[in-house]
């Protein structure tokens, strides 16, 4: 693996949108599918990172090997189909679809993510989701050491979830194929893209206010209706609440921003407070949308209290 770009004791600050400092023992940056296949076949339980838009890295550092997919950015177009590798930025896909007069990826323009992460968590916004236009995926099965092609049914998509997220560490997305809709004109597509950008700008923090997207999934009540997690957190009075350097965002309470050199422990403690107060008042247990990566004993223990609360 000598020819594959490899960095030792490397700060992951530029590879997570919360901009938390986290020193990784080993970071690999493959440039081709063949290179990432070699890494996946030889590394023990690696962490796969695009731009880290929903990964909370431990401030104590990362011992597991890290594979960054940013160089896996090839896109193949055969309208109305688009096939892209895992490291392609979602905004790039949105703009490419617009240029081809294809509709369906308008919502991606406002997501600071790569395709790999978007597919794993079935990213969505404005009543659209990545699964709506999904055809198939090429994934590496680390358990069987082979490449598989998974259909939409195989992926078991649900709200902010997929087979890949349920089996983090086993299946690694290499590329995915989508079938979009040919539009009559560019105008409607551009309007939807502009609306997505405007909506995000008015309610969600920008990249100048480092964050990991929504901290919690929107819960569903007994009648199957979706409830805004942000509204629940707002109603318990947590907007602007600080925990160390982490702060609940003023305009949307389901976002936590890195206000002042926040640590991962600050973020976890703030999430626990948000979850506790919402449960005490509404008897609703919020489920984290963010994924924690680290091995700090205290952090792991506290994170487990956040996630296991939903399984009791």
Which helices and strands appear, and what pairs or packs with what?
Elements: E1 5-11, E2 23-29, H1 33-42, E3 47-49, E4 55-57, E5 66-68, E6 75-78, E7 81-85, H2 90-99, E8 102-103, H3 115-120, E9 124-125, E10 128-129, E11 134-141, E12 146-151, H4 152-155, H5 163-166, E13 171-179, E14 181-182, H6 186-203, E15 211-214, H7 229-235, E16 242-243, E17 246-248, E18 255-258, H8 264-282, E19 291-293, H9 297-308
Parallel strand pairs: 2-5, 3-5, 4-19
Antiparallel strand pairs: 1-2, 6-7, 7-13, 8-14, 9-10, 11-12, 11-13, 15-18, 16-17, 17-18
What does this structure look like?
By secondary structure, this protein is of the alpha+beta class. It has helices spanning 33-42, 90-99, 115-120, 152-155, 163-166, 186-203, 229-235, 264-282, 297-308; strands at 5-11, 23-29, 47-49, 55-57, 66-68, 75-78, 81-85, 102-103, 124-125, 128-129, 134-141, 146-151, 171-179, 181-182, 211-214, 242-243, 246-248, 255-258, 291-293. Strand 16 (242-243) and strand 17 (246-248) form a beta hairpin. The mean pLDDT is 93.
Q: What class would the helix/strand composition place it in?
A: alpha+beta
Q: What is the helix tally?
A: 9
| Order of strands across the main sheet | 6-7-13-11-12
Biggest sheet features: 5 strands, antiparallel
Q: Average pLDDT, to the nearest integer?
A: 93
What is the 3D form?
A: globular
**Spans of 5+ residues with little confidence (pLDDT < 50)?**
none
Radius of gyration: 19 Å
Helix content, binned percent? 25-40%
Name the helix and strand elements from N-terminus to C-terminus, one letter apiece: EEHEEEEEHEHEEEEHHEEHEHEEEHEH
Q: How far apart lie the N and C ends?
A: 44 Å
Please give the number of β-strands.
19
The fraction of residues assigned to DSSP E strands is 25-35%
């Amino acid at each position: 693996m000598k020819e594959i770009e490899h960095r030792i004791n490397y700060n992951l600050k530029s590879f997570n949108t919360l901009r938390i400092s986290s020193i990784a023992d080993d970071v690999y940056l493959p440039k081709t599918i063949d290179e990432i296949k070699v890494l996946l076949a030889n590394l023990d339980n690696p962490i796969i990172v695009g731009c880290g838009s929903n990964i909370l890295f431990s401030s104590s550092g990362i011992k597991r090997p890290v594979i960054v997919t940013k160089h896996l950015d090839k896109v193949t177009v055969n309208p109305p189909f688009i096939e892209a590798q895992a490291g392609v930025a979602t905004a790039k896909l949105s703009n490419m679809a617009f240029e081809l007069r294809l509709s369906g990826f308008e919502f991606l323009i406002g997501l600071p993510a790569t395709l790999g992460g978007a597919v794993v968590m079935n990213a969505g916004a404005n009543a659209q989701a990545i699964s709506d236009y999904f055809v198939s995926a090429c994934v590496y099965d680390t358990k069987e050491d082979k490449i598989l092609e998974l259909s939409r049914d195989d992926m078991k998509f649900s709200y902010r979830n997929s087979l890949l997220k349920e089996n983090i560490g086993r299946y690694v997305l290499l590329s995915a194929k989508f079938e979009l809709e040919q539009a009559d004109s560019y105008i409607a597509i551009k309007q939807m893209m502009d609306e997505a950008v405007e909506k995000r700008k008015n309610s969600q923090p920008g990249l100048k206010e480092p964050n990991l997207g929504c901290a919690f999934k929107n819960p569903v009540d007994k009648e199957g209706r979706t409830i805004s997690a942000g509204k629940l957190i707002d109603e318990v009075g947590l907007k602007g609440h600080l925990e160390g350097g982490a702060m609940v965002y003023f305009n949307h309470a389901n976002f936590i921003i890195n206000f002042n050199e926040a640590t991962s422990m600050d973020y976890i403690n703030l999430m626990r407070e948000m979850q506790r107060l919402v449960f005490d008042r509404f008897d609703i247990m919020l489920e984290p949308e963010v994924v924690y990566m680290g091995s700090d004993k205290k952090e792991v223990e506290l994170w487990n209290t956040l996630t296991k609360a939903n399984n009791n």
